[in-house]
Give the backbone structure.
Amino acid sequence: MENIILHKADTRGNADHGWLKSKHTFSFANYYNPDRMHFGVLRVLNDDSVEGGMGFGTHPHDNMEIISIPLEGDLQHKDSMNNVAVIKSGDIQVMSAGTGIYHSEYNKNQDKLVKFLQIWVFPNKKNVTPRYDQITLNLADRHNNLQQILSPNQDDAGVWIHQDAWFSLGKFDQDFSVQYQTKRKENGVYIFVLKGDLIINNTTVNTRDGIGITNTENIDIKALTQDAEILVMDVPMTVA
């Protein structure tokens, strides 16, 4: 039987460090909610805004797949694999932390915010060789469509990670409908609403809401407002 979990935007954890404002869908840092530890292998979904010139100093990660999706502005990245890059809206960045990496992230601009999603996914392989990748997506490919941006397959569309997960982005006209089919019947789907109002499997969701759906293979999505945007995360429900 289908199961739905609804996380309204205003129920997320909140962190305000002045230079950093962050909303946490799942438990993170000083936000702890035993009912919101993760959704399957989806461990972290942070909605971050960083003031001009500020950012996260060098810090370590290991055995985690880390995905950054910029929404606005430019994010400067440096890491212990000698990668130096700027990611901006339309890009997606992935790091397989594996045996361990260090990295830093800063707002490249002094005069405007950088806004981005940082997502952590538990990997299905431990202690892999650390890896970095970044691509620029064609924004037109998500208009009234679910544009795949991540998968387990190196030869598939988007970036790839060490996990049987698929991410897609969509931007829809008002009243547009689409049906999403899960990639594996064992997977659940977590949909994060970037903008607008939609009906997802008969549940109304709004900007920055999250909805997790399990035990179903088909998800019906209808946009109620113009330019409604969503991120679909199709993930295993069992953490290895």
